[in-house]
C-alpha cells in the first residue's frame, strides 16, 4: 500500500510444511521473495485470504541523523571518536549502523550494527589507510524508514602489515610452510619484487631460495621456499620498507619476524580424524581427513592405503586422496556424495609412510555414520595445536596460541573467535582472527590469547577453548560453532608474562545461577588489594529486570580482597537480577580493573521447587539464523521425566535484561522429548542483536512443584 492507503501491488505465494524429528510435522509456513518498493511505500500486509496475519506500517517521518565529529577533510591517526546526533519525530526507537570505506565507497567494512548510542571510539590503526575514506552512519526506526549521512576523511597510520604466518616467535612450525604477510591495503603487483619479502636462517644469515607471489584478492605476500625448511631451525622473514600502497601510503620501516621449525623425532601416528570414530550425523558432502604428527611421503597416500568402505552395500567407495604438507593432513574425497544415514568404515594401512620413512605401527580402522546434512561453507575438523610464544626471550609466554584446523568448502573471507576459560567455564580472555581469505580445502587459523591476562587471573591450567565460532564474513550462514572445542595442557599461570592488572576471579551468586535464596548477598573476589573508596554504588551495583538499581550497602574486606553488596530488602522471588562492576574500580596503586564485569542470576520461586525433572536441553540451529531453518528462529528441545503440567520459557540477554517469554500455550509438556519453536523475535516483535543469550525453562508439574533448568544460545547474523 502507498501512504494514502491505496493498494499498489499483490503477490501470491505458496508455502509447504517441513518434517522435523520424532515424526512431528512443523506447522509454521515459510516463504521468501523480493518485491518492488514504491517511493511512497506506506505499509505491507501478509494475508491468508481476507485475514491479515501481519502488518508493518511505515511511520510518517524518517529518522534524522547528523555527524557532529569529525569534520569533512580531517586526517585520522590512532584512536578517534565518531559522534553524531539522531532523532525520530514519531518517537520510534532509533538504531544505528556505522560503516567504513577506504576506497570512496566501493567496499564497506562494518564497525557497529543495531547500535543505540551516538558516539563510537574507533582505533584507526586497525582500519586500512586511505586518502578518500568515508564513514557512514545510517539510522532506522524499524518501520521501513532509514537515513544515512557520510563524512569524508583520510586515515594515515602508515602502510600496515596485518597477519603474519608463521606468527612472530612461533614454535613447532612445519618445515613445509609458506611464509605469508597480509597487507592492510592493496598494492600494485609492479610494486612487488623478489626483495620485497625475503627469508633467511637467523643464526647463519644464509638466505633461503624460493618464489614470491602477491595475491591481489587477499592482499597477501606469499613466499614459498624452493625446498622444505630444516627441522629445529630458527628463521627470520623480512618485508622491506619502501613498499607503497595504491593510496600513496608508504611502509616506513622494515618489518621483521622470526619463528622456529618443528623437531622430528617421534614415531608416525595419527593426530586426529574427521569424521571422528563412531561419530554420527557426519555430513554427506565432506571428505575424510587424517592429520598426522609429522611430514608425510605423499606418494604413499593413495586410495589403496587410505580406503573408505560402505558397510551397508559391502563395497569400496571410489575417490581420490590429496595431501596438504602445511597441515600434515591427508583427505580422502569420495567421487560422489555419501549416502545419507549410512554406515562407513575407514582404513589407513601400514603402507602409509612419513618423509623420514616411518610407517604406521598397525593398520588403523574405524567406523562413522552419516546424517542428512551437508557442510555449509566451512567445518571445524577437531584438530588443534597449541604453543606458547615468547616474543622477547624472557622465558615467559607473551601469548598462548591455538591453531585451529578447518575444512573450507567455499573459498572466501572468514573470521574466527573463541573464549579461553577455566575448568568452571569462567571467561579468562577472548581472541579472534578476522577477514582471513581461505582457499578451498584444509587450512589452519591461529588464535592468540594474551599471556598477561592469563597471568592476571592467577589460575593454573589446563585451559579450555570454548564458544569457538568460525564464519564467512559475507554470509554468516556459512559457519560453525562449538561450545567446548579443546583442552590445553597443564600450565602454571606464572609461565606467562607478569601482569599487575586487577581482575575478578569468583562471583556469588555465580553467573547464570538459578534458585538463588531471596536473602542472598552478592560478592566478588579480586586478585589484588583494591582501593575501597573506588568500590561504591557507581562502580558496583545490582539492577532488576526493569534496569532499576537495587538499594543496598557495599563493603570491602582487605584480607580476602572481597567486595560484598547486601540489599536493603530481600530480592523478589522468581526474578532476574544483573550485577555490574565497572572499570571505575581501582587497586591500591591506582590501576583500573581489567574490564567491566557483568553477570546475572535468578531468585528462587516463591513456590516449592525441585531439580532433575528437566534434562537434555538443546537448541538448534545454534548459532542462528541458519540456512538449515529457512524461516528463521530456532528450536528448544528438552526431556521431561513426567508428563502433564505446564512449561514456559524465558529468554534474557547475557547481562540479565528480559527479552521474551514463550507462554505456556505455545510450549509442550509431554513426558519424554519436547520441542518448541521460537521465531527469534523479542517481546516487541524485533529481531535480536548479535550476541549470547540465556534461556530458562520453567516446568510446573502436576503436583504444583516447579523445576527449572537454564542454557545458552548465540545469535550470529550478517548486516
How would you describe the overall organization of this protein?
The chain is mainly β and 719 residues long. It has one helix and 51 strands. The chain is globular and about 70 Å long. The protein starts with 18 loop residues before the first strand and ends with a strand. 30% of the residues are buried.
Largest sheet: 5 strands, mixed
Measured on Cα atoms, how large is the radius of gyration? 28 Å
Estimated structural class: mainly beta
Helix content: under 10%
Mean pLDDT: 87
| Shape field | globular
Give the low-pLDDT segments: none
Give a short synopsis of this structure.
This protein is 1% helix and 46% strand.
List the helices and strands and how they pair.
Blueprint: E1 19-20, E2 24-25, E3 43-48, E4 51-57, E5 64-69, E6 74-76, E7 79-87, E8 95-101, E9 109-115, E10 119-123, E11 130-140, E12 146-155, E13 161-165, E14 170-173, E15 179-183, E16 197-201, E17 210-215, E18 220-225, E19 234-239, E20 255-261, E21 270-274, E22 288-292, E23 306-310, E24 315-316, E25 319-324, E26 329-334, E27 343-348, E28 364-369, E29 378-389, E30 399-408, E31 412-421, E32 427-438, E33 441-450, H1 451-457, E34 464-472, E35 479-487, E36 504-508, E37 513-516, E38 522-526, E39 540-543, E40 552-557, E41 562-567, E42 576-581, E43 597-603, E44 609-610, E45 614-620, E46 634-640, E47 646-653, E48 658-662, E49 672-678, E50 691-700, E51 706-715
Parallel strand pairs: 6-12, 14-20, 37-43, 44-51
Antiparallel strand pairs: 1-2, 3-4, 5-7, 7-10, 8-9, 8-11, 11-12, 13-15, 15-18, 16-19, 17-18, 19-20, 21-22, 22-26, 23-24, 23-27, 25-26, 27-28, 29-30, 30-33, 31-32, 31-34, 34-35, 36-38, 38-41, 39-42, 40-41, 42-43, 45-46, 46-49, 47-48, 47-50, 50-51
